[in-house]
Design a protein that fits this description.
Elements lengths: L2 H9 L13 H14 L10 H8 L3 H13 L3 E4 L3 E4 L4 H20 L9 H15 L3 H16 L5 H18 L5 H5 L1 H14 L3 H22 L7
Antiparallel strand pairs: 1-2
């Protein structure tokens, strides 16, 4: 086990209080999901059951149910006789994620009614990303970008869409955690997200959709091109 992996597991003990006395598989999954999103548990890392159970104070059965939930969400993968690992995306996975994003996010803008549009949440996400960039904190910048796109998709006003996008964007973060140069990828989207907000502020939903479609395609192409070759199973 690497030093980073050992440190991530030792930090997990601090999350025990989040579970409370009525800890459930869903709550454990929530803790692990958060750690994966933060990059503490990186793609390809094996998640040792005994250490995680000890850190969180839960039973092995509870943990395994949590693993099943996160495997269903495509964040983990189980390897027979080897254990459970944080999933490593392929280039094909990224292509498909962006296909779903374009279908959902562009439709959310296309179906907006008459202006004015609710842009406060979008503006706050862009501002958070800009602040993170000034601090050279590209992990938080990526988080702000994810928040921007979740908020954008939420304009559809559909709980099912919100749930779908939460899963899709959580899966996408697995790709961000193995990028060689996160600044090069994330920095241009600060200005681009701001442009989308300004288009919506001016009441131009069609213009915002055109910008979004172009930026999603550019993002997909850049991420696929920059994505490091992943080891075979």
């Amino acid at each position: 086990m690497t030093v980073d992996a050992s440190l991530a597991l030792s930090e997990l003990t601090a999350d025990r209080e989040l579970l409370g006395r009525t800890s459930t598989a869903e709550r454990v999954a929530g803790v692990l999901r958060s750690r994966i999103a933060q990059g503490s548990f990186r793609p390809g890392m094996r998640l040792p059951e005994e250490r995680i159970c000890g850190a969180l104070g839960v039973s092995r059965n509870t943990l395994r149910e949590s693993f099943r939930l996160l495997t269903h969400e495509r964040l983990l993968v189980h390897r027979l006789n080897r254990g459970t690992f944080v999933r490593i995306l392929t280039a094909e996975d990224i292509q498909d994620i962006y296909r779903v994003r374009r279908l959902v996010e562009c439709a959310a803008l296309r179906e907006l009614g008459a202006p004015p549009y609710p842009v406060d949440g979008l503006d706050a996400a862009v501002t958070a990303g800009e602040k993170a960039a000034t601090e050279d904190n590209w992990r938080d910048c990526a988080t702000a970008n994810i928040r921007f796109h979740r908020t954008l998709a939420a304009l559809a006003g559909s709980g099912r869409t919100d749930e779908l996008m939460a899963g899709v964007l959580a899966e996408l973060r697995l790709a961000f955690h193995v990028m060689d140069d996160p600044r090069r990828f994330h920095e241009p989207y600060l200005a681009r997200n701001r442009q989308i907000v300004r288009a919506l502020e001016s009441g131009d939903a069609a213009g915002a959709e055109r910008l979004l479609a172009f930026y999603l395609e550019d993002s997909r192409r850049q991420l696929v091109e920059a994505y490091p070759e992943q080891p075979e199973d």
